[in-house]
Protein backbone atom coordinates (compact mmCIF):
# COMPACT_ATOMS: atom_id res chain seq x y z
CA UNK A 1 0.00 0.00 0.00
CA UNK A 2 2.97 2.31 0.55
CA UNK A 3 3.69 2.15 -3.16
CA UNK A 4 0.05 2.41 -4.32
CA UNK A 5 0.68 5.67 -6.21
CA UNK A 6 3.54 4.05 -8.07
CA UNK A 7 1.49 0.98 -8.96
CA UNK A 8 -1.65 2.88 -9.99
CA UNK A 9 0.35 5.43 -11.96
CA UNK A 10 2.44 2.75 -13.59
CA UNK A 11 -0.66 0.80 -14.59
CA UNK A 12 -2.38 3.84 -16.13
CA UNK A 13 0.79 4.83 -17.97
CA UNK A 14 1.39 1.27 -19.15
CA UNK A 15 -2.07 1.11 -20.76
CA UNK A 16 -1.26 3.99 -23.09
CA UNK A 17 2.32 2.86 -23.72
CA UNK A 18 1.01 -0.56 -24.74
CA UNK A 19 -1.66 1.08 -26.92
CA UNK A 20 1.05 3.16 -28.63
CA UNK A 21 3.25 0.09 -29.20
CA UNK A 22 0.35 -1.99 -30.53
CA UNK A 23 -0.56 0.83 -32.93
CA UNK A 24 2.81 0.35 -34.62
CA UNK A 25 1.67 -3.00 -35.99
CA UNK A 26 -2.13 -2.97 -35.75
CA UNK A 27 -5.12 -0.66 -35.29
CA UNK A 28 -8.81 -1.55 -35.68
CA UNK A 29 -9.24 0.84 -38.63
CA UNK A 30 -7.01 2.85 -40.93
CA UNK A 31 -6.81 6.34 -39.41
CA UNK A 32 -6.32 7.95 -42.83
CA UNK A 33 -9.38 6.32 -44.43
CA UNK A 34 -12.56 8.40 -44.60
CA UNK A 35 -15.99 6.81 -44.15
CA UNK A 36 -18.47 9.64 -44.56
CA UNK A 37 -21.43 7.26 -44.45
CA UNK A 38 -20.58 6.43 -40.82
CA UNK A 39 -19.54 9.86 -39.60
CA UNK A 40 -20.36 11.08 -36.06
CA UNK A 41 -21.55 7.68 -34.89
CA UNK A 42 -21.69 6.98 -31.16
CA UNK A 43 -19.96 4.02 -29.49
CA UNK A 44 -21.08 0.68 -30.93
CA UNK A 45 -19.90 -2.86 -31.49
CA UNK A 46 -18.21 -1.86 -34.75
CA UNK A 47 -16.64 1.32 -33.33
CA UNK A 48 -16.15 1.00 -29.59
CA UNK A 49 -15.55 4.72 -29.05
CA UNK A 50 -17.56 5.96 -32.03
CA UNK A 51 -16.45 7.85 -35.12
CA UNK A 52 -15.55 11.46 -35.86
CA UNK A 53 -16.87 13.92 -38.45
CA UNK A 54 -14.95 12.14 -41.20
CA UNK A 55 -16.08 8.66 -40.17
CA UNK A 56 -12.67 7.75 -38.72
CA UNK A 57 -12.58 5.31 -35.81
CA UNK A 58 -11.84 7.25 -32.59
CA UNK A 59 -10.26 4.27 -30.80
CA UNK A 60 -7.76 3.85 -33.64
CA UNK A 61 -6.99 7.57 -33.61
CA UNK A 62 -6.44 7.55 -29.84
CA UNK A 63 -4.05 4.62 -30.18
CA UNK A 64 -2.01 6.35 -32.89
CA UNK A 65 -2.33 9.66 -31.05
CA UNK A 66 -0.79 8.01 -27.98
CA UNK A 67 2.21 7.14 -30.11
CA UNK A 68 2.52 10.75 -31.25
CA UNK A 69 2.14 12.24 -27.77
CA UNK A 70 4.54 9.80 -26.11
CA UNK A 71 7.17 10.19 -28.83
CA UNK A 72 7.06 14.00 -28.71
CA UNK A 73 7.16 14.14 -24.90
CA UNK A 74 9.89 11.49 -24.61
CA UNK A 75 12.24 13.14 -27.10
CA UNK A 76 11.56 16.59 -25.60
CA UNK A 77 12.45 15.32 -22.11
CA UNK A 78 15.55 13.69 -23.57
CA UNK A 79 16.61 17.03 -25.05
CA UNK A 80 15.99 18.78 -21.74
CA UNK A 81 17.98 16.24 -19.75
CA UNK A 82 20.74 15.84 -22.32
CA UNK A 83 21.52 19.56 -22.32
CA UNK A 84 20.21 20.74 -18.95
CA UNK A 85 21.96 18.16 -16.74
CA UNK A 86 25.50 18.90 -18.02
CA UNK A 87 24.81 22.64 -17.70
CA UNK A 88 23.60 22.18 -14.13
CA UNK A 89 26.65 20.08 -13.22
CA UNK A 90 28.99 22.66 -14.74
CA UNK A 91 27.26 25.53 -12.93
CA UNK A 92 27.49 23.72 -9.57
CA UNK A 93 31.14 22.84 -10.11
CA UNK A 94 31.94 26.51 -10.83
CA UNK A 95 29.63 28.10 -8.28
CA UNK A 96 29.95 31.90 -8.23
CA UNK A 97 32.03 32.01 -11.41
CA UNK A 98 31.21 33.74 -14.67
CA UNK A 99 30.21 30.38 -16.17
CA UNK A 100 27.71 29.78 -13.37
CA UNK A 101 26.26 33.25 -13.82
CA UNK A 102 25.95 32.87 -17.60
CA UNK A 103 24.20 29.50 -17.30
CA UNK A 104 21.71 30.67 -14.69
CA UNK A 105 20.89 33.93 -16.47
CA UNK A 106 20.46 31.97 -19.68
CA UNK A 107 17.98 29.75 -17.85
CA UNK A 108 16.08 32.83 -16.69
CA UNK A 109 15.92 34.04 -20.28
CA UNK A 110 14.47 30.74 -21.54
CA UNK A 111 11.94 30.67 -18.68
CA UNK A 112 10.64 34.02 -19.90
CA UNK A 113 9.37 32.28 -23.07
CA UNK A 114 6.76 29.54 -22.53
CA UNK A 115 6.83 26.52 -24.83
CA UNK A 116 3.81 27.83 -26.73
CA UNK A 117 5.56 31.11 -27.50
CA UNK A 118 8.74 29.27 -28.49
CA UNK A 119 6.67 27.04 -30.78
CA UNK A 120 5.04 30.07 -32.39
CA UNK A 121 8.44 31.61 -33.11
CA UNK A 122 9.82 28.35 -34.51
CA UNK A 123 6.67 27.80 -36.58
CA UNK A 124 6.93 31.30 -38.04
CA UNK A 125 10.33 30.34 -39.45
CA UNK A 126 10.08 26.63 -40.22
CA UNK A 127 6.34 25.88 -40.26
CA UNK A 128 4.14 23.75 -37.98
CA UNK A 129 5.18 20.13 -37.38
CA UNK A 130 5.71 17.54 -34.66
CA UNK A 131 9.48 18.13 -34.93
CA UNK A 132 9.09 21.81 -34.15
CA UNK A 133 6.84 20.94 -31.19
CA UNK A 134 9.59 18.64 -29.89
CA UNK A 135 12.16 21.43 -30.23
CA UNK A 136 9.93 23.96 -28.46
CA UNK A 137 9.11 21.66 -25.54
CA UNK A 138 12.71 20.46 -25.34
CA UNK A 139 14.09 23.99 -25.15
CA UNK A 140 11.68 24.80 -22.32
CA UNK A 141 12.80 21.66 -20.44
CA UNK A 142 16.48 22.60 -20.48
CA UNK A 143 16.39 25.20 -17.66
CA UNK A 144 14.14 22.94 -15.56
CA UNK A 145 16.76 20.19 -15.45
CA UNK A 146 19.66 22.63 -15.27
CA UNK A 147 18.26 24.31 -12.15
CA UNK A 148 17.34 21.02 -10.49
CA UNK A 149 20.75 19.50 -11.18
CA UNK A 150 22.60 22.57 -9.93
CA UNK A 151 20.50 22.70 -6.76
CA UNK A 152 21.05 19.04 -5.99
CA UNK A 153 24.74 19.15 -6.88
CA UNK A 154 25.53 22.19 -4.73
CA UNK A 155 24.55 20.33 -1.57
CA UNK A 156 26.87 17.47 -2.52
CA UNK A 157 30.02 19.47 -3.21
CA UNK A 158 30.53 19.97 0.55
CA UNK A 159 30.29 16.26 1.38
CA UNK A 160 33.31 14.44 2.77
CA UNK A 161 33.55 11.94 -0.08
CA UNK A 162 33.68 14.77 -2.60
CA UNK A 163 36.37 16.54 -0.59
CA UNK A 164 38.32 13.27 -0.49
CA UNK A 165 38.03 12.96 -4.25
CA UNK A 166 39.36 16.49 -4.70
CA UNK A 167 42.30 15.77 -2.37
CA UNK A 168 43.11 12.64 -4.40
CA UNK A 169 43.60 14.85 -7.45
CA UNK A 170 40.36 14.34 -9.36
CA UNK A 171 39.20 17.29 -11.45
CA UNK A 172 35.81 18.98 -11.24
CA UNK A 173 34.50 17.27 -14.40
CA UNK A 174 35.47 13.80 -13.21
CA UNK A 175 33.98 14.40 -9.74
CA UNK A 176 30.75 15.64 -11.32
CA UNK A 177 30.41 12.49 -13.41
CA UNK A 178 31.63 9.90 -10.90
CA UNK A 179 30.31 11.27 -7.60
CA UNK A 180 27.76 14.04 -8.13
CA UNK A 181 25.65 12.72 -11.01
CA UNK A 182 24.87 9.28 -9.47
CA UNK A 183 23.61 11.01 -6.32
CA UNK A 184 21.19 13.33 -8.15
CA UNK A 185 19.76 10.67 -10.45
CA UNK A 186 16.83 10.06 -8.11
CA UNK A 187 15.86 13.74 -8.36
CA UNK A 188 16.25 13.67 -12.13
CA UNK A 189 14.17 10.49 -12.44
CA UNK A 190 11.25 11.97 -10.54
CA UNK A 191 11.47 15.29 -12.39
CA UNK A 192 11.77 13.48 -15.71
CA UNK A 193 8.47 11.70 -15.02
CA UNK A 194 6.78 14.99 -14.18
CA UNK A 195 8.20 16.73 -17.26
CA UNK A 196 7.08 13.80 -19.37
CA UNK A 197 3.48 14.36 -18.26
CA UNK A 198 3.83 18.10 -18.86
CA UNK A 199 5.27 17.33 -22.29
CA UNK A 200 2.13 15.36 -23.20
CA UNK A 201 0.01 18.30 -22.07
CA UNK A 202 2.18 20.73 -24.02
CA UNK A 203 2.00 18.60 -27.16
CA UNK A 204 -1.79 18.42 -26.87
CA UNK A 205 -1.97 22.18 -26.38
CA UNK A 206 0.28 22.88 -29.38
CA UNK A 207 -1.70 20.50 -31.57
CA UNK A 208 -4.94 22.09 -30.38
CA UNK A 209 -3.85 25.45 -31.80
CA UNK A 210 -2.41 23.84 -34.95
CA UNK A 211 1.30 24.02 -34.04
CA UNK A 212 1.90 20.33 -33.35
CA UNK A 213 1.60 17.19 -35.47
CA UNK A 214 -0.09 17.92 -38.78
CA UNK A 215 -2.75 15.89 -40.62
CA UNK A 216 -3.04 13.06 -41.41
CA UNK A 217 -1.07 12.17 -38.23
CA UNK A 218 -3.63 11.86 -35.39
CA UNK A 219 -3.07 13.92 -32.25
CA UNK A 220 -5.12 14.10 -29.07
CA UNK A 221 -4.99 17.90 -29.05
CA UNK A 222 -6.21 18.23 -32.63
CA UNK A 223 -8.98 15.71 -31.94
CA UNK A 224 -10.21 18.05 -29.21
CA UNK A 225 -9.95 21.03 -31.55
CA UNK A 226 -11.96 19.21 -34.23
CA UNK A 227 -14.68 18.31 -31.73
CA UNK A 228 -15.25 21.74 -30.18
CA UNK A 229 -17.95 22.78 -32.67
CA UNK A 230 -19.74 19.40 -32.40
CA UNK A 231 -19.66 18.82 -28.66
CA UNK A 232 -23.40 19.52 -28.26
CA UNK A 233 -24.49 16.64 -30.53
CA UNK A 234 -21.34 14.45 -30.60
CA UNK A 235 -19.83 14.69 -27.10
CA UNK A 236 -17.95 11.41 -27.54
CA UNK A 237 -15.58 13.15 -29.97
CA UNK A 238 -14.26 15.31 -27.12
CA UNK A 239 -14.85 12.93 -24.21
CA UNK A 240 -12.53 10.10 -25.18
CA UNK A 241 -9.46 12.14 -26.29
CA UNK A 242 -9.90 14.27 -23.17
CA UNK A 243 -10.00 11.17 -20.98
CA UNK A 244 -6.88 9.85 -22.71
CA UNK A 245 -4.98 13.04 -21.86
CA UNK A 246 -6.38 13.12 -18.31
CA UNK A 247 -5.60 9.50 -17.46
CA UNK A 248 -2.12 9.56 -19.02
CA UNK A 249 -1.09 12.73 -17.19
CA UNK A 250 -2.67 11.48 -13.96
CA UNK A 251 -0.84 8.17 -14.26
CA UNK A 252 2.53 9.83 -14.87
CA UNK A 253 2.05 12.23 -11.95
CA UNK A 254 1.07 9.40 -9.61
CA UNK A 255 4.07 7.44 -10.78
CA UNK A 256 6.30 10.46 -10.13
CA UNK A 257 4.92 10.75 -6.59
CA UNK A 258 5.50 7.04 -6.05
CA UNK A 259 9.06 7.25 -7.33
CA UNK A 260 9.73 10.20 -5.04
CA UNK A 261 8.48 8.24 -2.03
CA UNK A 262 10.52 5.22 -3.09
CA UNK A 263 13.79 7.00 -3.87
CA UNK A 264 13.87 9.71 -1.19
CA UNK A 265 15.84 8.32 1.78
CA UNK A 266 14.26 10.83 4.19
CA UNK A 267 10.78 9.56 3.34
CA UNK A 268 11.98 5.96 3.69
CA UNK A 269 13.30 6.70 7.18
CA UNK A 270 10.06 8.48 8.12
CA UNK A 271 8.01 5.44 7.06
CA UNK A 272 10.33 3.12 8.96
What does this structure look like?
This protein has helices at residues 4-22, 58-93, 98-111, 115-126, 130-154, 160-167, 172-208, 220-227, 236-263, 265-271. The protein is mainly α and 272 residues long. It has a single domain, classed as MetI-like fold. Helix 2 (58-93) runs antiparallel to helix 7. The longest helix has 37 residues, at 172-208. It is elongated and about 75 Å long. The model has no long low-confidence stretch (mean pLDDT 90). Belongs to the binding-protein-dependent transport system permease family. Its main location: membrane. It is found in: Cell membrane. The chain crosses the membrane at residues 6-29, 70-93, 113-140, 237-256.
Instruction: Tell me the overall shape.
Output: elongated
Superfamily (CATH H level) name: MetI-like
CATH topology: MetI-like fold
What Rg is obtained from the alpha carbons, in whole angstroms? Answer: 22 Å
* Overall number of domains: 1
Low-confidence stretches: none
Q: Roughly what percent helix?
A: over 70%
Summed up, the helix count is 10
> What is the CA–CA distance across the termini?
14 Å
Organism: Thalassobius vesicularis
Membrane topology: Multi-pass membrane protein
Family: Belongs to the binding-protein-dependent transport system permease family.
InterPro entries: BP-dependent_transpt_permease (IPR050366), MetI-like (IPR000515), MetI-like_sf (IPR035906)
